[in-house]
Write a structure and sequence with these properties.
The complex is a heterodimer of chains A (about 230) and B (about 675).
Chain A lengths: L1 E12 L6 E12 L3 E6 L5 H8 L7 E6 L2 E2 L5 H11 E4 L11 H12 L5 H11 L14 H13 L5 E5 L7 H18 L3 E5 L2 H4 L4 E6 L2 E7 L3
Helix pairs in contact in A: 3-5, 5-6
Chain B lengths: L2 H12 L1 H36 L7 H37 L1 H9 L4 H49 L17 H28 L2 H4 L17 H7 L1 H12 L1 H35 L6 E7 L1 E5 L6 E5 L5 H12 L7 E6 L4 E3 L7 H4 L10 E9 L1 H11 L7 E3 L1 E6 L2 E6 L7 E5 L5 E5 L2 E3 L17 E4 L7 E6 L5 H15 L7 H4 L2 E7 L2 H42 L1 H9 L4 H38 L11 H26 L4 H10 L1
Parallel strand pairs in B: 6-13, 7-12
Antiparallel strand pairs in B: 1-14, 1-15, 2-3, 4-6, 4-14, 5-6, 5-10, 7-13, 8-9, 10-11
Helix pairs in contact in B: 1-5, 2-3, 2-5, 2-6, 2-16, 3-6, 3-10, 3-16, 5-6, 5-16, 8-9, 9-10, 9-18, 10-16, 10-18, 10-19, 11-14, 16-19, 17-20, 18-19
Classes of the chains: A alpha/beta (about 230), B alpha+beta (about 675).
Chain lengths: ~230, ~675
């Protein structure tokens, strides 16, 4: 079953002469457990695609279905609640809440949902991420790699339909970057977590099972990597 | 604790200086509201003590006298507080924009975003309101105590001139309900202040909040600078003007707060100047003491003619006032003389053929019935003889005081009313019965050395009629150092004719006898003015402090938000001096804008107040140029000091670190 189905997705910025077509009738689908990399040069439309799939921006036209539910028709708050329960986001610049500890940042979707703390699950994730000693630390007290691990933990805490990772290694050195990639692969292989990785780095993309290539708002390639 | 509240609390602990500033603003606002509630409840208690539980006949008027100013002041404080506090919240929300964006991205709803901004307000209220209530209680107590002392002094001074005895005692009175009301109003102020930024933040989309790759989307429209500012401050001024233009919404509350500061200062100076003018008008150049007799009058309407009828219950006749005058003179060392008045018996028919040209051109002298108010002036014999001699009138003749003084829109006007052709006046009483009053002489200001009839708007026609009875009569003298002995003596003389047997002799015996100094009213007014000024300046200073707290938060937030811009400017070669110049010129730009807005309002408010004062007294509004310069100067100095402090803080920031940190934020 497809966890994500994108059909004729179009995003246009501006009007008239200043009109820019960032996404031009993009269609694809992602099956549960897939590790998909979306690659393309700067300005190819990959970040715009991520914003639409992540439900944080509204497309001009087209459809985005996540686990069978059409998100483009959802009201803002309905979409917010859907997002915290069904989508995990990992950003290049981590985007952690600076006043919350690592543990609290990981639990943020639960806290927003008003759910009770599941200590066992939290400990499992913290352990898997290797953050036991940093759990009570604030983001400013951690290295970039550690902050990105917290960000991955936050994305995984709700067992989402898929994790959307936007250049997760872009702000890290190569060693830390590969550690982060290992973590994503681990969650994909061991937990059957669907991953959508957005990157401009072909070497990073090659670690995925499937690569979708974008150019000028269009998909110009969609290939499965044989390993 | 909910995550929204916790995030709000974390934000407050992270920005301690801004939190302290906001708590200070909320504390001051609550304190001022509490002090006003204390004043209002103490005022109500004072009126209840003096007039009874329902405040007597004019209960509604007295209630309005307490509640209307209290409501106006509360609204003023509320407006100022909302302006300042909402600006602080907006700055704080802008500071958290990325955090709020992250919340949105991980599934925070708009409601939760609004809640976290409002929670900040609630946390701040938790600290600011109780401390404001305590400070307000202390301020209210100190204010009521001070005002009470002044009111006691006013009552003491005016006791000799009021006809009906009254006791006013202002004592501190505060109730739990009053404090709850003040807390509720303050909480409402804070909630209103946080609501707008909360709504704005709730509406903002996740994409707008989270700048992927660390670059913010800036406004794209073209921003114009200011040629004048460029000429004054150079390229730094141009940059400053553009920045203000780009961040209009951020600077607007700061300009509004400064405008209100200037407006309040200027209005206070303007009102104080008018009070001083009123005092100067009332001031007498003599050091006279007067003994006053006034009869009660009964007012009604004549059933046949429909005219107003005044019946003097205990008129004083010429024999009595001359006898009293002789007895008062018997005290010795100084001369006593008296003037009486009866404006209640007749109207004078207007004979326009005898009017001077200036009288014909003057409006309001002749009533709708075609007649004029007339005052039959009675004098003690000695004074009358002197005036007869000065005017060349035969003893026993009626003398027209041919000088009419009145107030026209705050200007004192004086005209000669009749030509000397006038030889008689036809008087009409309320029944319509006519009497002829012969005019045997004319008294003009230049005929006598000392002018005894400087009354403003008293009656159009004043005629000295020998042996006329009067409703009220005043005996004047200058007893110098024998004042106390003379007062005792005069009291014993008056007791022989008009003994005072009750506290309210005017109502109960039909007359009053008062012995007072001529300048008592001026003294009482002076005390009132000092009291008014003490309270007004105190209020304005505290309100201005709230405004400055708002300005500090705006400048701090602006400098913080633009730290990267400053670092970039420095990196391309802008010197520290130039940067300072740019920031100072921004502050001055705000001050000048505020000066135009606040200055206009600060001139218009006392001018509007003067429109009602000038109907009664010859006090005009004059453009308070030096006050305007002083008010704007005070605000400009405060603004410069605040900017200087913020610039100093920037000095130690590392250029590269600032640019890097801004990308990371």
């Amino acid at each position: 079953m497809a966890v994500l189905e994108v059909k004729d997705l179009t995003k246009i910025y501006g009007e008239g002469e200043s009109e820019v077509v960032a996404l031009d009738h993009v269609s694809f689908s992602v099956e549960k457990g897939e590790f998909v990399a979306i690659v393309g040069a700067s300005g190819s439309g990959k970040s715009t695609l991520m914003n639409q799939i992540g439900g944080i921006d509204i497309p001009t036209s087209g459809s985005v279905r996540i686990e069978g539910r059409e998100i483009t028709e959802m009201a803002e708050d309905e979409l917010a609640i859907f997002r915290r329960r069904n989508i995990g986001m990992v950003y290049q610049f981590y985007n952690l809440i600076p006043t919350l500890t690592a543990e609290e940042n990981i639990m943020l979707p639960w806290l927003l949902d008003g759910r009770k703390e599941n200590r066992k699950k939290l400990d499992e994730i913290v352990k898997a991420l290797g953050l036991e000693k940093r759990a009570k630390h604030l983001p400013a007290e951690m290295s970039g790699g550690q902050q990105q691990r917290v960000s991955i933990g936050r994305a995984l805490i709700n067992d989402p339909a898929f994790v959307l990772a936007d250049e997760p290694t872009g702000n890290l050195d190569s060693r830390t970057g590969s550690e982060i990639m290992d973590l994503l692969k681990y969650s994909n292989q061991m937990l059957r977590q669907t991953i959508l990785l957005i990157t401009h780095d072909e070497k990073t993309a090659l670690q995925a099972d499937r690569i979708i290539t974008m150019k000028d708002g269009n998909i110009i390639g969609d290939e499965v990597i044989k390993k | 604790m909910r995550i929204t509240s916790r995030l709000a609390l974390n934000q407050l602990t992270r920005n301690r200086k801004r939190t302290a500033g906001t708590i200070l603003a909320i504390t001051l606002s609550t304190a001022l509201i509490t002090a006003i509630v204390c004043f209002a409840s103490s005022g109500i208690a004072m009126l209840k003590n003096a007039l009874g539980d329902d405040f007597g006949e004019y209960g509604r008027v007295y209630s309005a006298m307490v509640f209307v100013p209290a409501a106006i002041l509360t609204c003023l404080i509320g407006f100022m507080s909302v302006t300042v506090i909402s600006n602080i919240f907006r700055a704080s929300a802008n500071d958290r924009i990325k955090e709020l964006g992250v919340l949105k991205c991980v599934g925070g709803t708009s409601k939760q975003i609004r809640k976290t901004v409002i929670s900040e307000g609630l946390w701040l209220s938790l600290a600011g309101i109780p401390s404001g209530l305590v400070l307000g209680g202390i301020l209210g107590y100190a204010g009521v105590f001070t005002a009470g002392a002044y009111i006691g002094r006013i009552v003491e001074i005016t006791r000799s001139i009021v006809m009906r005895r009254f006791d006013l005692k202002l004592e501190f009175s505060a109730s739990a309900a009053g404090f709850i009301l003040a807390a509720a109003v303050s909480l409402l102020t804070v909630l209103i202040s946080s609501l707008k930024p909360a709504k704005q933040m709730g509406r903002i989309t996740a994409v707008e909040c989270v700048s992927f790759g660390g670059c913010k989307r800036e406004k794209t429209e073209r921003i114009s600078g200011s040629r004048i500012w460029k000429a004054l401050w150079g390229v730094e001024g141009e940059l400053a003007a553009r920045n203000i233009s780009r961040n209009k919404r951020s600077f607007r509350p700061a300009v509004r707060a400064l405008s209100m500061g200037i407006c309040l200062l200027l209005s206070t100076f303007g009102i104080a100047a008018q009070l001083d003018d009123m005092e100067a008008f009332m001031k007498s150049e003599h050091n006279r003491l007067l003994v006053d007799y006034t009869s009660l009058r009964e007012e009604s309407e004549d059933a046949v003619t429909g005219r107003h009828r005044d019946t003097i219950l205990h008129p004083i006749d010429s024999v009595t006032y001359n006898e009293i005058n002789d007895k008062l003179n018997a005290f010795g060392d100084f001369e006593v003389w008296g003037i009486g008045s009866n404006r209640d018996t007749y109207y004078a028919e207007a004979d326009s053929s005898a009017f001077t040209d200036e009288a014909k051109a003057t409006e309001g002298i002749v009533s709708d019935y075609g007649d004029m108010d007339i005052d039959l002036v009675s004098l003690t014999d000695g004074l009358y003889r002197n005036i007869c001699e000065a005017t060349g009138t035969e003893y026993g003749g009626n003398i027209l005081i041919n000088t009419y003084t009145w107030n026209r829109s705050g200007r004192r006007n004086e005209i000669t009313l009749f030509t000397e052709k006038l030889d008689k006046l036809t008087l009409t009483d309320h029944n319509g019965e006519k009497t002829t009053l012969e005019i045997n002489g004319f008294l003009d200001r230049e005929d006598i050395g000392e002018w005894y009839f400087d009354y403003l708007n008293r009656a159009a026609v004043m005629v000295i009629v020998p042996d006329a009875s009067a409703r009220s009569f005043d005996w004047y003298c200058e007893p110098a150092d024998k004042e106390e002995e003379y007062i005792e003596y005069a009291r014993s003389v008056m007791d022989g004719y008009y003994p005072i047997l009750s506290d309210d002799s005017y109502a109960e015996q039909g007359y009053s006898v008062r012995i007072s100094r001529e300048d008592t009213m001026v003294k009482a007014l002076n005390v009132m003015i000092i009291l008014g000024e003490v309270l007004l300046y105190g209020f304005v200073i505290l309100l201005a402090l709230i405004g400055f707290a708002g300005f500090i938060s705006t400048v701090t937030a602006s400098i913080r938000v633009r730290s990267k811009e400053f670092a970039v400017l420095k990196s391309v070669g802008m010197t520290g001096g130039s940067l300072k110049k740019m920031l100072y010129s921004e502050s001055m730009y705000c001050t000048m804008k505020a000066a135009v807005k606040g200055g206009s309002a600060g001139i218009i408010i006392p001018l509007l107040i003067n429109l009602s004062i000038r109907n009664v007294l010859p006090v005009r509004f004059h453009l308070p140029l030096y006050m305007a310069v002083l008010s704007i100067g005070i605000v400009a100095l405060a603004v410069l000091a605040i900017t200087r402090k913020e610039i100093k803080k920037m000095k130690d920031q590392s250029l590269i670190e600032t640019i890097r940190m801004d990308s990371m934020r």
